[in-house]
Amino acid sequence: MHVTTTARHFTLESPERSHAQERLDRLTKFLVWGRNRVQSDELHLIVTAEKHGYTAEVTLRVGRRELVSREQADEARVAIDLAASKLEERLRRLKDRAVDHRRTEHVRIADEPSDGARPDAEEPFDWLDGQPAED
């Protein structure tokens, strides 16, 4: 995945850039849902030096959604790690929702009885045998 990195008010050194690239490359495992790979080609990292620390902002465009995470820390590397962890958690939840949504069984209204009652509701059921109970 291509990571666009921007440093504001300071210069982000090569070791921090490579660390950010490696850390954000781990997000690709959440972009494969089943057999499908989600199209995501925009990942932008903005690290800003402020008066009392650094702020890291990671923006990832997934389909029609844009996931953004911002974190502050005393060091740039720590801020990047915190923002990446937060985005990783959001991606994991998004993936879980998408996968769970696909696995649910949908009941068509036409398949249900018109009176709203189940046809076998009056019939007792023996849970040990898995067969209707015999009187």
Automatic annotation (TrEMBL):
Entry protein name: Ribosome-associated translation inhibitor RaiA
Biased composition (Acidic residues): 122-135
Classification via InterPro entries: RHF-like, RHF/RaiA
Annotated region (Disordered), positions in chain: 102-135
SUPFAM superfamilies, per database record: Ribosome binding protein Y (YfiA homologue)
Origin: domain of life: Bacteria
Gene3D superfamilies, alphabetized: Ribosome hibernation promotion factor-like
Record field: compositional bias (Basic and acidic residues): 102-121
Family annotation (NCBIfam families): yfiA (TIGR00741)
Signal peptide residue numbers: none
